[in-house]
Amino acid sequence: MTVTTIKMSNSNFQKLSEGKTSTIRRGVKDYRLGYALIINDATGEKLAANIVSISLANIATLTLKQAQRDGFKNLPDLIQELETIYPDINRLEPITVVSFSLYK
Q1: What's this model's pTM, rounded to 2 decimal places?
Q2: How far, in whole angstroms, is CA 5 from its chain's centroid?
Q3: DSSP structure class, residue 41
Q4: Can you tell me the distance from the alpha carbon of 26 to that of 10, in angstroms, rounded to the nearest whole number?
């Protein structure tokens, strides 16, 4: 069985302790519901998570609630982060929204 892994920058990984419960990835990703490991790209630290939903969207249709689940106070901050990570992303391009809960 292959374990789903989700890599995060150190700053996004740190948001997990502040209640971050989702991540947004460019393109259509093939994640699976269930057990996953979230990995801090900078330190290699790992946390076990349960992927509870996977949906497709685009930047133009993101909501404040999705931004808050991703650890941002508002939608403009999330969009700015996405455009920093993916400088050439189109606002209508597909993105994958992965919601999860962390195992204690």
Answers
A1: 0.91
A2: 12
A3: T
A4: 18
Task: Give the Å distances, CA to CA, from 77 to 26, 40, 69.
Answer: 17, 21, 13
Parent domain of 28: 4-102
Residue 79: closest CA among 53, 58, 99, 55: 58
Domain count, the chain: 1
Residues 6+ positions from 86 with CB-CB distance below 8 Å: 26
Q: Report d(CA 21, CA 51) in Å as an integer.
A: 9
CB-CB neighbours of 10 under 10 Å:
11
pLDDT value, residue 1: 65
pLDDT of residue 98: 98
Q: Which residues of 43-66 are buried (b: 16+ CB within 10 A; e: fewer)?
A: eeeebebebeebeeeebeebeeeb
- Report the CATH number that the domain containing residue 96 is assigned in CATH: 3.10.400.10
**HSE of 50, CA atoms in CB hemisphere, 13 A:** 5
Q: Rounded to an integer, what distance in angstroms lies between the CA atom of residue 16 and that of residue 101?
A: 10
Whole-number Å distance between alpha carbons of 10 and 40: 6
